[in-house]
Amino acid sequence: MPDYVELHCHSYYSLLDGASALEELVTRAVELGMPALAITDHNAVYGAPRFSQLAKAAGINPIFGAELSLTGNHHLTLLVENEQGWQNLCQLISLAQHNAPKGQAELNLAALSGRTEGLIALSGCRQGEVAQALLNNDEAVALAAATHYRTLFGPDNFWLELQHHLLPEDERLVGDLVDLASSLGLSYVATNNVHYAHRADKLVQDVLICIRHLVSLDEAGPLLRDNSEYYLKSYRQLQPLFRPYPEALTNTLHLAERCHFDLAFGLQDLPQFPTPPGLDARAYLQQLCQGAISHRYSHPSDRIQAQLDHELAVIDQAGLANYFLIVWDIVRYAQAQGILGQGRGSAANSLVAYLLGISPIDPLAHDLVFERFLSKERGVPPDIDLDFQADRREEVIQYVYDRYDHDHAAMACTFVTFRARSASRDIGKVLGLSAMALHQAAEVLREKEANPVIDPGNANAVEILTYVAQQIHGFPRHIGLHNGGMLVTRSPLSRRLPTEPATMDRRVVVQWDKDGLDDVGLIKIDILGLRMLSAIAEATELITALTGQDPRLDRLTFDDPNVFAMIADGDTMGVFQVESRAQAQVIPKLKPATFTDLMITISLIRPGPIQGNMVQPYLRRRLGLEAVTYLHPRLEDALAPTLGVILWQEQVLQVATDLAGFSSGQGELLRRTLGRKHSTTEIELFRSQFLRGAHANGVPETIAAAVFEQLKAFGSYAFAKSHAGSFAVLVYQSAWLKCYYPAIFFVALLNNQPMGFWSPAVLVGDARRHGIAVWPVDIERSQGKCTVEEGNIRLGFNYVTGFGEAHIDLLEQARQVKPFASLKDFCRRTRLPRRLVENLIVAGAMDAWGPRRKLLWALGQLDYREAALDLDLPDNGVELPSLSQAEAMRLEYGVLGLSTGEHIMSQYRTRLTAQGILGSWELESQPNGRQVQVAGLVVVHQSPPTARGFHFITLEDEAGLIDLIIRPQVYERYRRLLRNEPLLVAAGTIQHHQGGVTNLLVKHVMSLSRSKD
Amino acid sequence: MTRLWRRELPITVEDDELMTPQVVIWRGQRHRVETVAKRWRVDKQWWLLRIWREYFKVATQTGYLVIIYRDLQTGDWYLQRWYD
Hints:
The complex is a heterodimer of chains A (1013) and B (84).
Chain A: H1 22-31, E1 36-42, H2 48-58, E2 61-70, E3 74-80, H3 83-98, E4 119-122, H4 129-135, H5 139-153, E5 158-162, H6 170-184, E6 187-190, H7 202-213, H8 217-220, H9 235-238, H10 247-258, H11 281-296, H12 302-317, H13 321-336, E7 341-344, H14 351-355, E8 385-389, H15 393-404, E9 409-417, H16 420-431, H17 435-447, H18 461-472, E10 476-488, E11 499-501, E12 508-513, H19 514-520, E13 524-530, H20 531-547, H21 561-568, H22 581-590, H23 595-604, H24 607-611, H25 615-622, H26 636-639, H27 649-660, H28 664-674, H29 680-696, H30 701-714, H31 721-740, H32 742-750, H33 760-769, E14 774-775, E15 787-789, E16 792-794, H34 805-817, H35 823-830, H36 834-842, H37 852-861, H38 885-896, H39 909-914, E17 931-942, E18 951-956, E19 961-966, H40 968-973, H41 975-980, E20 983-993, E21 997-1007
Parallel strand pairs in A: 1-2, 4-5, 5-6, 8-13, 9-12, 14-16, 19-21
Antiparallel strand pairs in A: 2-3, 3-4, 7-8, 9-10, 10-13, 11-12, 15-16, 17-18, 17-20, 18-19, 20-21
Helix pairs in contact in A: 1-2, 2-19, 4-5, 7-16, 11-12, 11-13, 16-17, 16-18, 17-18, 20-31, 20-32, 21-31, 23-31, 27-28, 29-30, 31-32, 32-33, 36-37
Chain B: E1 2-10, E2 12-15, E3 21-26, E4 29-44, E5 51-60, E6 65-71, E7 77-83
Antiparallel strand pairs in B: 1-7, 2-3, 3-4, 4-5, 5-6, 6-7
């Protein structure tokens, strides 16, 4: 059977048009016996790196290309023949993308001139200029267009594209194109303009098209294709359609054979970092590191010098000296600007990184192995991510753009994808479903059962919706800016890969995401923003202002027993990474006492170890309740530091090496594959390799299989030990701040929201429990941000809904002239919008001038001209009720997002006590197993996917928190209540655990207001 | 004059191994197909009642122009339009 190669094929990277993943298309092409496949998405090569990998793994030749949109609404199919063609394609796509508003790429025909070498152009689908003219019976135009393209590309590189989808005019069109080819001495080739892998996928494409155009299926009309012929077809299926022109099919092979381009770049693409005269990159790097030794170590040992020499040699051999200098330069800039930052990820494994100030911890002191950062085997780019203060991250990004300019620096993209549940809304609209049916469908999707393939003819709308939602789960929907992944290149970007304008001004984004960039070996540097760093920076400033001395957090040695005692006590609200309920439940059992313990803590309570069933065993072993055992003695070396439990990526590597004989490079690849999204086939390949290697080492298969399952469960997310190390630094620093400067600490947290696990409302509760008062917004004393006043917290105007920078400036300027004397004075001098003044009154800012109700009434009577300022208020008007205490509290909460007065639960306490309902402070003394009732305000409601239907709710009352555990059946019974009621009474069994952790295992729930009886 | 049937009217068609109509049998009379003037497929409205059909506009040796279609879900043939 002669072969056929599909040369015009769209994947789901033709956004909201293509309906199949690359995996499906490649698999199908292989099934059909195609030796090659082209992917030609609209004005983009988003899928090229992934496609390249899949095709190579499957043994077929990947042909790169794109379908370009030209002015006049014409399409042109371009295929890459060689490297020159690739560069030209990138330039053309970039031009098309930058030419028009986002999502409407368009290329001027003239731009093709001089950019055609190495490209093969096919005349396109029905929207190709030539085909369109022929359909309009405009032979002269068709002839002129074809001639023009022939001139641009040359007769060997411009082919007429024949498509036959059994549309009424297709037969005639094909004939006309063949005649045209003959008259111009051109050749022709058949394609199928594929938009999905299988015929049945047409329904998915139809839904995507409707989503794109925001219409329902009934309204879509001609937007949908008339039939379902646009799938990957075999030679046998196409042959009858092109019976008079068999060369059309065989020519696909000739063209496919001409196209060979390997998508792989490398380190040589990094810009050459300028070094002082006489020094190359390696020498300069050495000089910087040597100079830094005395700065970082008071008593440098021989070991340090030996390690440095070793690392520099490996870095040099891997050609990475340049890369280190580039990263060092960015960090150096930030430090010079006073921007807090530190490296995360595997960089902490490197002494060089530590000496250069990139990493905050000494790898030698924490047993971090350099080989985990950089393996001698090539092909695996290193991984340095930088965290900076979130509020100043833009400055760092701008520095990189300025230093390397816009032709050599850009950001990685992200693909925002459909998630089955949120997609169901869009799909529901497309299907014209009622709200009730939508709700039903959402319920079904929550159960997450895999839907079998449906027959749309026999399925009801809800079944169709859930089917489609599951199909498009993971499909890219649009592209966005990756959070800080920056690419810097030596050659102009446009020669490497296409760029697009990002929605952010002056920002340019490349068409590949971080996985894609990794796959082709392009190195990027992640420049991330961390709000905790902003909070730490602010706290440091406040301490310096208060004490006259910089606390030098970077000089802290991680051994203050007060800090560890506070953490071990579970007093971790606000502390980086260890403040969640899950953490708070485990820490008192684990009782961290060292820096390594902090690393273990933050690595332990994560989906990876939870799913891999590591947490309980670790705790039992640590508490001496269980012996430390290993599934196999070969695992002891890797797992002894974590008591036999796999916690870190580095351990995955070591297990693969020690148990199954993987090389460190292979182990690294395994680890990376375990962490990726669409990797089931590759994981299976590794599994076989792992079992074989283990077998060769004499390990029984059941044990090897069990170990591999543990490694797999890990792939979802496992911390790198080095990453845990960099983060543990911030855990310690934030804990130190809470321990010694709690008021400043809370103020810094309040001023850098949203961040962390807890809302400001709960944070202020914790502050109060630490003996810090939280004073309301005050018209005379408050600043734009929260401040420390006499050792307590004074809320700032930033917490009044609607207050933006402009309003705060206005207020402060007026106040500087003279203090405000009255409401009238305030309004006349600031002329702030009435809504804002109302909010100030309700927040208690003007309590000095009279009761709130009276002030609100007076405001209504006042006549003043509001300044014309933009208000950033939501649309619900503030009502003016009679202000009872409860009401005042509620309003204040509505305006501030928190309450500065008493906790709302204090309103109910008398009644609750009379009913025997307990407060948070009374639980500790209850015997284990007793049936009690508690009440509180819901502040946390979690149902992690690992919890198998269990829900965890935390209630807050005026003295503290109460943790509830709700079994799936109980949750089902009280679902509506638990999802909607903010104030609850819960009845259940007291459970006391090690370390003073207490839970209530809930049996019954009711709303607090109902419980009056 | 042409007659267009708005609802499907079953008709008997003999086709070849490529499913191209050879003979149309209507009201007891056999009409051999001379040429297939046009042929096209539609696949629509899967969310209501799927219309998946292959249409043929044929000229018969008996001098008629006929549009028939095959329902691709059932394989049955129907008459769409008969031109006198």
